[in-house]
């Protein structure tokens, strides 16, 4: 009998190279046999093993072969608990030809084909660089940034439309809005952009934040398309801006397409009744912890709308390994930020980090480990000498202890022995606990914390101090969009919904915004060339008068920062720093010249320390000493 040959997913279009592949067409492709193929494509020359998920009605009842270059071959086919899935292991030889291949599915006399693109990699892709201490990261919540394409405010099939007055609804920001501000961001002195998740979040409500993903391979159409995102990255690169993708491996959205028919029964953690994670990170490095508490920490749900992924299932882990690699390769990304990092199963997540960095040895990955307990935070950074032998393979961590110290210490006028600037001194003094103190993201606030201007009671001088600290302390600095404009929450009583304001496009009409912006712009653009701030050492000096002084230094440069957070005029106690500033100071070397005069980074004026230098209340000074 003659076989019936069908071409599944006929709407897909492939062109045989990474530059022309259009994954957006996959979302619109329909087929009676196959609904989804993930990853959407792959590349020749990858280190990451390829395991293709195929979903379709009773697809597991079909035999599958691969048509095309013999150097691309199926090595194994795995059935799932659900008959509607297959997991296909594909070996892509490094000498294989890029092009369109076909999965050929056969059952009896029925046969159909599904095209699959194996593309050529960008030249030098594996050796890509990433974000470092030389960068300043600008954090954007896309929906609350700029609405530049009103045509995307309401998209068929996606539940929520735009309501700009809703605190927890969508406001319409989009990728076009981010592109419209790239020149502004670059002019400010930022060198990298971290967007909160742009992937589809089709929850019925509260979808604006993007942290409940419902499709891991497609940008939410209310933001734009996959191609729009790739073009955003390309344009950002042209302007000297790196692109960091915010990803979530711990949980998906309850409206994710697979929740109605999961591949495996243990694809997500299921409980007899809703069980929230106990959110207690200490359990994961606690030698006395019980199994039930550990299981709850790693397997409890983050929220009722966020099912907890089971990374102990090897198919789930592989799915997330190649998903991260796919986006880096497809969109030409410069780094990753991982949400709710310790909520994941820690050993699979360590393997995940190792796998991604095996593909991209220089890629930086920063994890959200929201704790102010310094040893607990240090535990999660790669290379930390943990007593239990655990190594997370996570290069960078977010410095929540420093953020808390800034928020607690900066608003204080009258201080006791452990208050005010002492808080910040203490936070920096804890650096001995960190394996790599430079590879820590430092920040005054983000999309989950109060706006720093609100914390500081809208004090312009103190806002400038905080931005100075973030711009000159060790680590990788990050600021939240519009904090450089002294932005405040729309309504503090609304929590997240209030602080996640729309970007004020009319900021130049606000004298306060202009003042703070211009200060930040001067500081951040100077920082680009400040090697002592990027990679230098630190020596700091404590006084119990709500002041704080420190030097950042290397062989070529010394940067001096003095903060007067008190209500009084203060004279810089230059004599107290003689161990560092005098000629031949041991910390700087026997041939080190005396530090007597430098340049005020903000004003450009010469600062001569042979005479008393006074600093006004609630202000700071940054002095640049060029040694060569």
Query: Outline, from the CA principal axes?
Result: elongated
What structural class do helix, strand and pairing data support?
alpha/beta
- Strand residue content: 15-25%
Give unreliable regions as ranges.
Answer: 1-21, 25-30
Radius of gyration: 26 Å
Report, as a whole number of angstroms, the end-to-end distance: 84 Å
Quaternary state of the chains: single chain
- Quick check: average pLDDT? 94
Largest sheet: 8 strands, parallel, barrel
Question: Given the structure, what is the number of helices?
Answer: 16
**Strand line-up across the major sheet:** 10-11-14-15-16-17-18-19
How many beta-strand runs?
Answer: 27
Helix content: 10-25%
Kindly describe this structure:
- The protein has 628 residues and is α/β, with parallel strands linked by helices.
- Helices cover 23% and strands 21% of the residues.
- It has an eight-stranded parallel β-barrel with strand order 10-11-14-15-16-17-18-19. A six-stranded antiparallel beta sheet has the order 20-21-22-27-24-25. Strands 1, 3, 5, 8 and 9 form a five-stranded mixed beta sheet that branches.
- Strand 6 (72-79) and strand 7 form a beta hairpin.
- Helix 6 (314-331) runs parallel beside helix 7 (346-359), helix 9 packs antiparallel against helix 10 (421-429) and helix 12 (460-472) runs parallel beside helix 14 (511-527).
- The longest helix is centred in the middle third of the chain and has 18 residues, at 314-331.
- Residues 1-21 and 25-30 have low confidence and may be disordered.
């Amino acid at each position: 009998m003659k076989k019936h040959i069908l071409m599944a997913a006929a709407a897909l279009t492939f062109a045989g190279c990474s530059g022309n592949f259009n994954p957006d067409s996959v979302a619109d492709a329909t087929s009676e046999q196959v609904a989804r193929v993930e990853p959407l494509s792959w590349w020749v020359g990858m280190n990451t093993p390829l395991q293709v998920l195929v979903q379709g009605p009773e697809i597991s009842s079909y035999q599958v072969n691969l048509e095309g270059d013999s150097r691309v071959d199926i090595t194994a086919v795995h059935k799932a608990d659900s008959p509607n899935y297959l997991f296909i292991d594909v070996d892509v030889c490094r000498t294989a030809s890029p092009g369109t291949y076909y999965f050929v599915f056969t059952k009896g006399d029925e046969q159909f084909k599904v095209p699959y693109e194996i593309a050529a990699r960008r030249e030098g892709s594996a050796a890509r660089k990433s974000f470092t201490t030389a960068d300043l990261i600008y954090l954007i919540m896309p929906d609350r940034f700029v609405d530049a394409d009103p045509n995307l405010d309401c998209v068929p099939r996606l539940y929520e439309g735009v309501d700009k007055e809703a605190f927890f609804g969508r406001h319409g920001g989009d990728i076009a809005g981010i592109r419209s501000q790239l020149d502004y961001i670059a002019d400010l002195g930022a060198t990298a952009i971290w967007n909160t998740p742009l992937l589809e979040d089709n929850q019925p409500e509260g979808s604006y934040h993007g942290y409940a993903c419902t499709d891991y391979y497609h940008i939410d159409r209310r933001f734009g398309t996959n191609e729009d995102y790739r073009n955003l990255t390309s344009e950002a690169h042209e302007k000297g801006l790196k692109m960091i993708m915010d990803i979530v491996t711990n949980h998906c959205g309850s409206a994710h397409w697979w929740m109605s028919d999961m591949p495996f029964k243990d694809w997500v953690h299921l409980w007899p009744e809703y069980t929230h994670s106990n959110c207690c990170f200490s359990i994961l490095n606690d030698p006395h912890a019980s199994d039930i508490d550990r299981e709850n920490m790693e397997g409890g749900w983050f929220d009722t709308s966020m099912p907890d992924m089971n990374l102990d299932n090897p198919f789930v882990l592989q799915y997330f390994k190649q998903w991260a690699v796919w986006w880096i390769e497809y969109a030409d990304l410069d780094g990753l930020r991982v949400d709710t990092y310790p909520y994941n199963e820690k050993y699979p997540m360590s393997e995940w980090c190792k796998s991604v960095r095996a593909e991209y040895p220089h890629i930086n990955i920063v994890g959200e480990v929201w704790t102010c307990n310094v040893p607990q935070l240090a535990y999660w950074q790669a290379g930390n000498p943990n007593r239990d032998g655990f190594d997370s393979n996570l290069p960078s961590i977010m410095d929540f202890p420093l953020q808390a110290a800034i928020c607690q210490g900066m608003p204080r006028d009258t201080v006791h022995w452990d208050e005010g600037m002492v808080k910040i001194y203490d936070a920096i003094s804890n650096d001995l606990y960190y394996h790599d103190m430079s590879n820590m993201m430092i920040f005054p606030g983000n999309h989950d914390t109060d706006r720093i201007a609100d914390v500081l009671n809208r004090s312009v001088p103190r806002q400038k101090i905080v931005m100075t600290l973030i711009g000159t302390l060790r680590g990788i600095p990050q600021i939240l969009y519009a904090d450089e404009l002294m932005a405040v929450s729309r309504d503090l009583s609304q929590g997240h919904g209030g602080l996640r304001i729309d970007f004020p496009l009319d900021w130049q009409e606000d004298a306060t915004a202009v003042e703070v912006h211009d200060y930040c712009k001067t500081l951040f653009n100077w920082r680009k060339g400040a090697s002592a701030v990027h990679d230098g050492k630190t020596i700091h000096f404590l006084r119990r008068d709500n002041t704080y002084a420190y030097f950042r230094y290397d062989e070529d440069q010394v940067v001096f920062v003095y903060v007067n957070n008190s209500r009084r005029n203060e004279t810089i106690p230059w004599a107290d720093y003689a161990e560092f500033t005098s000629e031949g100071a041991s910390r700087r070397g026997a041939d080190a010249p005396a530090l007597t005069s430098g340049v005020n980074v903000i004003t450009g004026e010469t600062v001569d320390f042979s005479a008393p230098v006074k600093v006004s209340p609630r202000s700071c000074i940054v002095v640049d000493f060029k040694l060569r």
